[in-house]
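During the second year of the project, the team shifted from modelling isolated chains to modelling whole assemblies. The rationale, set out in the original proposal, was that interfaces cannot be judged from single-chain predictions alone. As a representative example for this report, we include one of the complexes processed in the last quarter. Its constituent sequences, exactly as entered into the pipeline, are reproduced here:
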Amino acid sequence: MKRIVIAIKNSEFSNQFALNDFHGVINNPKHGKVEYFIHRNPMMKISPVGGLKSNFDVLIDNPYPGESTEGADFISLLKPHQLFTNKREAKSIMRHRLNSIGPYYKGFTPIPAWKTTDPLLLGQSGGWGNDISGMVVLKDEHGARGAGQVMFEVSNHSPACVIRAIKDQAEKLHELEENPRTDQEIIDDIKKVIPKVNLGYDLNVGIRETVTKLSTNGTYIEQFVPGVKEEFRILLCPGNHYVFSREIENVDGYKQACGSKGGMRKPVTDPRVLAVAADAVELLNKAGVIYGSADLFVTDEGWGIFEYSSQFAANGVASEYSREIQTGLINHVIEKFLDGEK
Ligand SMILES: Nc1ncnc2c1ncn2[C@@H]1O[C@H](COP(=O)(O)OP(=O)(O)OP(=O)(O)O)[C@@H](O)[C@H]1O
Ligand SMILES: [Mg+2]
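Output from the structure prediction step:
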């Protein structure tokens, strides 16, 4: 029997493999039975007589955008079939990919979005162009759990004004406060300047994360999608996926499905939802997303995708399903490796 050692880099991602066995035998449809070992401590070195030594056969790497490239050039010396990378992407890049490919699918809802790479423009009136209007959501490029999002109507507050108000708050958070303000007091202070915004934030982590993240990470703006009826999380791996229902909460008047709460234990079986999800998975595959998770929404008119991630965002999911999805990825990686060794 063949034996393969798989190393997973990026601790956040590898934690999600806690559910999986670190050692097992898998039946690969193409290569038969393979014994595998998984660890999270990839190491490589140059052998004095040439050639590379590594404590793995295959490396799964999920780097953050802009992550330190220490070791990256060295890792690039691996053979192509030894390296399996899937970059985590900024929300604006995901939006661009989805809007470009999505319109080929029936019922797909593109979400108009605005982004500029010139930081000087962000806080200037008119900096976002004159085609921005209606209800929008300002997002932290790397936000999670709904944090780092502000919803507002452009005729009430200009994007520049909202950004400046949030940045002011971030500076205040850095000041030493004798009696630290409560979350509600911070929200009240924000609303003194921009009264008509709705703030997205994780109820557990609070408004501090929204303010801090929005002012340190990049930002971008997208159109608010009215009439979202239901939201789902798709967990996918090559050749398989499951769909889970997500609870929508009302946070400061901004209705959000935050994180992985409610209804996520068992997959949905409603054939109408599954039909839409099958299209969504095909679209994701075309966008280069073959594993991880994606947030699907359904409206009266159609469906769309809020975001995807190379992470298996599977909190609350019964372990048998996330295990199956993770094992699907392992099997895929093993197959690619053995294909390449031939
Ligand atoms: N353009 C939009 N229109 C309407 N609702 C939105 C929009 N963008 C986000 N939301 C709501 O906010 C939720 C969180 O958005 P998104 O998935 O972009 O951020 P996130 O913080 O990474 O989420 P999470 O980590 O909880 O999946 C969505 O599931 C949806 O309920
Ligand atoms: Mg999401």
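The radius of gyration is 22 Å. Residues 293 and 309 are 5 Å apart (CA to CA).
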